[in-house]
């Protein structure tokens, strides 16, 4: 399939050029049953994208999942240009325009890891709006055969407010949480490449659920 039409910065122009998502991108993998313990066992390559608003636990979950699956981990926060970091540090929410190049960079970095021979990759990105998720959903155009899965972490705003408030040394302050919720578009039912996880539970409960659902996703498409 030809790559979608894109803007000069490589961003697909609109949803009518971003066809892939739920139906066209298979959501699972044939595995030997040991896939979750050893990702190298899987036949297909995977991008596991951990999403949700600030403080939902993306980094926490992604690091543990990457270790478990023996895959590289891409920390989305590290791919913001300095101008974005400065804005967020000053309590100014990013705009769509601020996010496009960042989203493309994350997609390209994921594809780069797949091209380099890794059997999969785990990355973090808030991906608050559906059109942001759609930017990543075109990854299989650039890495044919890769399967993309979103792991959407959700909890009430008050819970995340407390967690971001308690977190030390991060440019994203608690004053940014409300703006994240105000633009959040939780994945809809037709976004069938999404696993939803309630993160208002303990880290252990969250991780147990993530690993169970990841394994189930893989096995259901065997
Ligand atoms: N399930 C959880 N329960 C309590 N605290 C958590 C949980 N998951 C993560 N945290 C803590 O909440 C804060 C935000 O988590 P983090 O992984 O940085 O979120 P994100 O990457 O989505 O912004 C961190 O201080 C982290 O240790
Ligand atoms: O750890 C966090 O608090 C978030 O991951 C945060 O650092 C992320 O970079 C922003 O969410 C920027 O992107 P958005 O404004 O698109 O969420």
UniProtKB/TrEMBL annotation:
Q: Which segments of the protein form a coiled coil according to its record?
A: none
A GO biological process held by the record = carbohydrate metabolic process
The superkingdom listed in its UniProt entry is Eukaryota
One Pfam family this chain carries?
A: AAA_18
What pathway does this protein act in? Answer: Carbohydrate acid metabolism; D-gluconate degradation
Q: Which keywords does this chain's UniProt record carry?
A: ATP-binding, Kinase, Nucleotide-binding, Transferase
Please list where the region (Disordered) is annotated: 1-35
List the catalysed reactions: D-gluconate + ATP = 6-phospho-D-gluconate + ADP + H(+)
Q: What is its EC number?
A: 2.7.1.12
- Annotated GO CC locations: cytoplasm
Which InterPro entries has this protein been placed in? P-loop_NTPase, Therm_gnt_kin
From the UniProt record, which GO molecular function terms apply? ATP binding; gluconokinase activity
Please state which protein family the record places this protein in.
Belongs to the gluconokinase GntK/GntV family.
Q: Write the protein's name.
A: Gluconokinase
Q: Which organism is it from?
A: Thyridium curvatum
């Amino acid at each position: 399939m030809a790559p979608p039409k894109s803007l000069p910065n490589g961003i697909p122009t609109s949803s009518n050029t971003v066809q892939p998502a739920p139906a066209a991108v298979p959501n699972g993998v044939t595995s030997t049953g040991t896939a979750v313990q050893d990702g190298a066992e899987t036949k297909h390559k995977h991008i596991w994208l951990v999403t949700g608003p600030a403080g939902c636990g993306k980094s926490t979950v992604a690091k543990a999942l990457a270790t478990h699956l023996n895959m590289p981990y891409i920390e989305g926060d590290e791919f913001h240009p300095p101008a974005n970091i400065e804005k967020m540090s000053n309590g100014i929410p990013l705009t769509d325009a601020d996010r496009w190049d960042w989203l493309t960079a994350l997609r390209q970095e994921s594809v780069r890891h797949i091209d380099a021979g890794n059997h999969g990759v785990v990355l973090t990105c808030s991906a608050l709006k559906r059109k942001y998720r759609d930017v990543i959903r075109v990854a299989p155009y650039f890495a044919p055969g890769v399967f993309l899965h979103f792991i959407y972490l959700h909890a009430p705003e008050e819970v995340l407010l407390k967690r971001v408030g308690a977190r030390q040394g991060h440019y994203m302050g608690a004053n940014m949480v409300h703006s994240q919720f105000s633009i959040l578009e939780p994945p809809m039912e037709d976004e069938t490449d999404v696993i939803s996880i309630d993160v208002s539970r303990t880290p252990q409960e969250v991780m147990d659920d993530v690993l169970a659902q990841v394994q189930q996703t893989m096995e259901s498409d065997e």
